[in-house]
Specification:
By secondary structure, this protein is mostly helical. The protein has one domain (3-167): Four Helix Bundle (Hemerythrin (Met), subunit A) (Up-down Bundle), CATH 1.20.120. It has helices at residues 3-21, 26-30, 40-59, 64-67, 70-73, 89-94, 100-120, 142-150, 153-167; strands at 130-133, 138-141. The protein has a two-stranded antiparallel ribbon. Strand 1 and strand 2 form a beta hairpin. Helix 3 (40-59) runs parallel beside helix 7. It starts with a helix and ends in a 7-residue tail after the last helix.
């Protein structure tokens, strides 16, 4: 396993997340391109919540969502199971975004915890360790959880696509 490679992927994910949210209003964060579509805000929340939840599962600690009371800043309940998995279209549509700075502050904490764990505790043997997710009711390896976090690139891409619908060509800067 190349720890630096995983750290670089996590850093790129964080950078793209930040770039995609930069300068958006709460109205833009809550925009849904269609009634069955997720908003940028919901996708951003789900992305960070998922990483926080998976971190807690394989690190053996409590989610920052609960321990640092991020649920209150998002005007949500302190439910460690709620991360958007299984949300209906109605639940996703009812989600209301806080300011971009709240997303970034939450993600920064999750990102720092992730990096610290990878740098100081993650071993090759640890990748095959089985961990149970009480919030999802599944058991999988640490490696599968890390891959799940990397898979969040799809959600950042979805966020960028919706932003493109709002802002048009050129929003990304290339």
């Amino acid at each position: 396993m190349n720890k630096q490679f995983v750290l670089d992927i996590y850093a790129k994910l964080f950078q793209e997340f930040e770039h995609t949210l930069q300068g958006l209003t709460q109205e833009e964060l809550n925009f849904q391109p269609g009634p069955q579509s997720n908003s940028i805000g919901w996708l951003a929340w789900h992305t960070v919540r998922s990483q926080d939840r998976m971190n807690a599962d394989f690190m053996g600690g409590e989610q920052l969502w609960i321990s640092h009371k991020w649920y209150a800043k998002f005007d949500r309940q302190p439910d460690p199971r709620e991360s958007g998995v299984g949300h209906t279209a109605e639940q996703a549509a009812a989600f209301r975004s806080p300011d971009v700075s709240v997303y970034m502050a939450y993600y920064k904490e999750v990102f720092e915890i992730s990096n610290h764990y990878i740098q100081t505790r993650l071993t090759e043997a640890d990748l095959q360790r089985q961990v149970h997710s009480p919030s999802l009711g599944i058991t999988s390896t640490v490696e599968a959880r890390i891959l799940g976090i990397i898979y969040n690139f799809q959600h950042v891409g979805q966020m960028g696509y919706v932003r493109g619908l709002l802002k048009g060509i050129g929003w990304y800067g290339r």
